[in-house]
Every structure is written in C-alpha cells, then in structure tokens.
Amino acid sequence: MQVSLLSPDSSISREPAANFAVHYANLHTALALLAQPSRILGVVGYGIERPGVLPPACPFVAAPLLPAAGGAMFEIWTAASPCRPCQVGPVIGACSDDLAFGAIKLDETGKASLEAAVEAAYLNIFDFMQDIGFQTPIRFWNYLTSITDHDQGLERYRRFNIGRHRAFSARLRQQVPPVASGVGGHQGAPVIYFLAAREPAMTIENPRQVSAYAYPPIYGPCSPSFSRASIYARASAESLFISGTASIVGHETRHRGDLPGQIAETAANLRALIGAAAQAATAPLSGRWSVKIYVQDPGDCAAVEPAVDAVFGADAERLYLRGDICRSDLLMEIEAFRRSA
Ligand code: 3EB
Fold it and tell me: How far apart are CA 107 and CA 272, in angstroms?
C-alpha cells in the first residue's frame, strides 16, 4: 500500500515529550486552535461538514452525532510535536512523534452487510497503521447510525460487533482490545476514528463489570471488542483513556427507565475505573479531564452535569452529544480522557 504524505514537515522535532491533548470547541473558539495547523492531529465535527477555515492538509471527519444543545462543535486532537498528514487508501489522518490520528467513513451504499462494511473499514485501518508505523491502536470511536435497528433479524450493533471481531482476529496484535466507544447517531454516514501509537497502552478492567470482550452470547454472536480503560505511558507522562461507560453491572443493564439511577451507577463505574487506574499507574495521575457525555434525550443533560462535576471536577472540559447507546435500555453513557499533566 502506498503512503502519500500530503505536506511533509521536515522540522519534526525529536524531543521525548509525549504530549497530546483534546479540545472541544465551537466555531468561534476553534479558530484559535486552527491557527496552529501543524499541531493538529485531527478534527471531528459534530453537526458540521468540513469548515472552510480548516487548512486543506488537516484531517477532518464529520461524525453522525449532533451536539445535545447549541450549534456545531469540534473535537480537536493536538500534539506537542509537529503533525504530518497522511492517507492510506480510504483512511485519512496525521501523525506526530508518538501518536497518530485516523478516520474512515463507512460505505453502506452497496449491497454489503454492515458487518462486511465494518470488517473492511477496520482492515483499512490496520493497513493505515502498518504503513505509517503506528501499529498499536490506543482508542477507537465507533459512531454508527440506527445502531439499535434490526436488519434482517440481527441488530445493527450486533452486526457491527461481528465485523470488528473478524478484523481484530485477523490483525490485532494485542491480547486484549483497546479502549472504545460505540454510539449511534442520527444523520450522515457511520464513521470510525482512532488514535494509534508505536507501543501499546496498559489496559484496565472494571472490577464491577464483566469484561465486554467476555460478555455472554445473549448480547450477540460476537462480544464487543474493547477494554474498559487504559493508561498510555510515554516518556514518563501517563494519560488515561476511559471507554464509553454506562449503567451496567456485571454484564446487565441496571436501573431501566430510571435516569437518576443510571447516572449514579455510571458514576460508580467511572469511579471504580479511576481507582483501578490509580493502582496501575506508576505515579499519581494528574491533568485536566476531557469528558464526552452521550444522552438519548437532550433534555437529560442538566441531570447528568452534577455527576460529571463530582467525578471529574468542575474544571473538566465536556462535550454533550445526542446519541443512541448500543443497548436501547441505556439512557446515557460517559467516556473520558485525562491527559498527562
Ligand atoms: C457497554 O458497556 C456499553 O462496542 O465499542 C461502551 C463502549 C459500549 C464501547 C463498543 C460499547 C462499546 O457494553 C456499550
């Protein structure tokens, strides 16, 4: 496969700093970040197509999810070292010294099943990672559409899990899958975007939950391939990734139809993961949290906000999105990232 470097940056620094960050910005606040395009790994748009102010070389993908309230939002991944755009087949992205960002839109226009489209997309992602030399996926976001709809007798989320499972069986080099989110949107095409590195993250499971990759077959023919959390360590800096986390204990949904109950259970799961990560980390984790909250009903954001403050602190950066959680009885889900300080 051919790697095309859209704008090679000859000044890539070799300092060991392992820093990268994410910012959630609206059209106005994004402008300041976009003024330094060489530090941008990738941009995800919510409720917006590629904006004209974005430099042509900057990777951009439009997510099929909308902000829960207000206008368009951007999720902007930046790096401390210069970023070099790259494309391998249908996967676009960029890489810095120690981290790569990539994205692919799923093609569901043909006759192929969703599982075939997902498997093909993931195989393209593995080709991309191999060609650019960042072979280890650290974090996946799977934004589907009509996620809980049934398609010829099998729910689309379950078909998605089959396709992902096939590609991971063929190409994933790690024993356990990376951190992920799987959420359904309401407009546009499904997308998968991701972060990849040269070395794997240390995965962490939630003592309150069965590992998703070991869910019993009542949730579909293939278990969801993701870990609950991970610590990515590089040059003594440690960042923490937390997968989409919901009101599940063991493998069962708790507090069906009860929003306050689901919020409290989700917070307990997040606290358990943060506790497990603190045990696994070599030094106390610090740094600002970035939190994404997915709500089935945009009217539920105000009820979730105090739990976000309590678990992550009032200074946590947050992005509220309207999304369908992959089990229709789940009303909300929260994911988080804590950058190394
Ligand atoms: C769960 O715990 C809730 O399929 O990649 C959360 C995070 C969920 C990731 C995925 C699914 C995924 O099972 C759903």
Answer: 38
Answer yes or no: pTM beyond 0.85: yes
- Lowest mean per-residue pLDDT among 17-31, 205-219, 269-283: 17-31
Q: How far is the CA of 224 from the centre of ligand 1 (A)?
A: 7
Q: For atom 14 of ligand 1, which residue has the closest CA?
A: 326
* Spatial CA neighbour of 75 closest among 131, 134, 141, 155: 141
The residue contributing the CA closest to ligand 1 atom 13 is: 212
Ligand 1 centre to CA of 244 (Å) is 6
Could you tell me which residues come within 8 angstroms of residue 160 by beta carbon, excluding any fewer than 6 positions away? 114, 115, 118, 142, 144, 147, 182
Cα first-last separation, the chain: 37
Q: Residue 302: CB partners within 8 Å, gap ≥ 6?
A: none
Cα separation, 194 vs 199, whole angstroms = 15
Mutate to test the pocket of ligand 1, among 192, 208, 228, 326 (most ligand atoms within 8 A of CB): 326
Residue 16: the pLDDT is 38
Ligand 1: residue whose CA is nearest its atom 6: 244
- Checking if the pLDDT of 324 tops 50, the result is yes
Rounded distance from Cα 326 to ligand 1 centre (Å): 7
Q: Domains in the chain, ordered, with CATH?
A: 12-339 (3.30.1330.40)
Dist. CA 230–CA 178, nearest whole Å: 8
**Ligand 1: lining residues by beta carbon, under 6 Å:** 142, 180-182, 212, 224, 226, 243-244, 246, 248, 326
Ligand 1 midpoint to CA 145 (Å): 15
- Separation of 88 CA from ligand 1 center, angstroms? 27
- pLDDT tens, 48-87? 999 998 999 999 999 999 999 999 999 999 999 999 999 9
Cα–chain center distance at 52: 25
17 CA distance to ligand 1 middle (Å): 31
Please list the residues that pair with 152 across neighbouring strands: none
Structure confidence at residue 235 (pLDDT) = 75
Q: How many CB atoms lie within 10 A of CB 213?
A: 17
